[in-house]
Specification:
The chain has about 260 residues and is α/β, with parallel strands linked by helices. About 45% of the residues lie in helices and about 15% in strands. It has a seven-stranded parallel β-sheet with strand order 3-2-1-4-5-6-7, with helices on both faces. The longest helix has 29 residues.
Length: about 260
C-alpha cells in the first residue's frame, strides 16, 4: 500500500500537537488538510508546509458544529486518515464550572470526534481503507481535580473508540487513541495559571508538583514522540491494532 498517496485531515492543526503532526506527515509526502476553528491559524501552518515542498490545504472547521462537519465530509470525500486532535481546557471546581463551558468541552472533545468520524466513515468503507487516530490524554485513564468535563470527555473517547473498532473490524479500518501526559503546548501553558489559582500554589509548583511529579521520568512528552506514534498507527504494520490505547506517560500509570 502506497501510504504517501493518502490524504489526512487533522483537526485543531493551527497550533500545538496538530500543527506538529501536520508538518511531519507532509514531510512524509502525505496530502494534508490542516483544519482549525481559527482559519487564519490553519492557513499559516498550511503555507509553511507548502513553502517547504509539502502538500497542504487549510480548512476552517468547527468540530462542535454539525453543519461544519457535514460540509467538510461533502467537500473532502478523499480523506483516508482522520486525526481527531482539536481540544480545549477549562479548570474549575464543578460548583463554579460554567454549564455552557462544561457542555462545550464535551462537544469538542467527544461529540465532535464521534460525529466527524461518522461523517467520513462511509467513504472510508467504500475504499476499504481508513485510519482514525484520536489524540486523547493521560486523563482518559486517570483523574485530576478541577477537570471534570475534560476527564469525562477523554474517558468517553476510549469507550467510543472500542465500539467503533468492533463496528469496522470487517475492513482495513482502524481506530486508536494516543494518550500522552503533559506536552508543552499552548493549551497546557494556558492552564498553568488556572491550576495555580485552584490549587493555591505558584505556577512553578504547578509544573513540578502537578504536572511532572506523577511521572517517574519527570519530563514533558515531546512532539516527536506523538508524531512517531501517529505514523506507526497509520502504517500497514499496525493494521491489526485497533480499539487500543497507546499510552505515552513517562510511567505515570504503572504505579
Amino acid at each position: 500500500m502506497d501510504l504517501p498517496t493518502k490524504t489526512v485531515l487533522i483537526t485543531g492543526a493551527g497550533s500545538g500537537i496538530g500543527a506538529a503532526v501536520a508538518e511531519n506527515l507532509a514531510k512524509k509526502a502525505f496530502n494534508v488538510i490542516v483544519s482549525d476553528l481559527n482559519l487564519s491559524s490553519a492557513e499559516k501552518v498550511s503555507a509553511k508546509i507548502n513553502a517547504h515542498g509539502g502538500r497542504a490545504r487549510a480548512l476552517g472547521l468547527d468540530v462542535a458544529d454539525q453543519q461544519s462537519i457535514e460540509s467538510c465530509a461533502a467537500t473532502h470525500p478523499e480523506i483516508d486518515i482522520l486525526v481527531n486532535n482539536a481540544g480545549l481546557q477549562f479548570v474549575a471546581k464543578l460548583e463554579s464550572f460554567p454549564p455552557e463551558k462544561w457542555r462545550l468541552l464535551i462537544d469538542v472533545l467527544l461529540v465532535g470526534p464521534a460525529m466527524l468520524t461518522r461523517a467520513l466513515l462511509p467513504a472510508m468503507r467504500e475504499r476499504g481503507y481508513g485510519r482514525i487516530i484520536n489524540v486523547g490524554s493521560i486523563h482518559a485513564l486517570v483523574a485530576s481535580p478541577f477537570k471534570s468535563a475534560y476527564v469525562a470527555a477523554k474517558h468517553g473517547l476510549l469507550g467510543f473508540s472500542k465500539v467503533l473498532a468492533l463496528e469496522t473490524a470487517d475492513q482495513n479500518i482502524t481506530i486508536n487513541t494516543i494518550c500522552p501526559s503533559y506536552v508543552k503546548t499552548p493549551l497546557v501553558e494556558s492552564q498553568i495559571m488556572q491550576q495555580a489559582r485552584e490549587h493555591g500554589m505558584s505556577e512553578a509548583d504547578v509544573i513540578d508538583k502537578i504536572m511532572l511529579e506523577p511521572m517517574p521520568k519527570k519530563a514533558f512528552i515531546g512532539m516527536d514522540e506523538l508524531v512517531a506514534a501517529t505514523i506507526f498507527l497509520i502504517s500497514d504494520e499496525a493494521r491489526n491494532m485497533t480499539g487500543q490505547t497507546l499510552t505515552i506517560d513517562g510511567g505515570w500509570t504503572i504505579k
